[in-house]
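Exercise 7.
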Amino acid sequence: MVTALVLLNIERKHIKDVSQQLVNMQEISEVYSVAGRYDLVAVVRVKTNAQIADTIAGKFGELKGITATETLIAFNTYSRHDLEHMFSIGE
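Solution. The predicted structure, written as tokens, is:
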């Protein structure tokens, strides 16, 4: 599994629409609306680096309102949520 965090700048009037379109994509596991330099963060989880390229250069490019992106490829994932889920009993 390859994970990428995509930081997006969106035209203000398109933030809600772009968020919904992103979350509906099979490759996207989560979309966060954030404060700061970026408007949204999308978490891409796919099997190959080529799929990341197809998703960001292809599918993201079709969405109206995205003005810029920055992509961070994750080397490793460290998550308390995953550990808690692995060791939970009956939840």
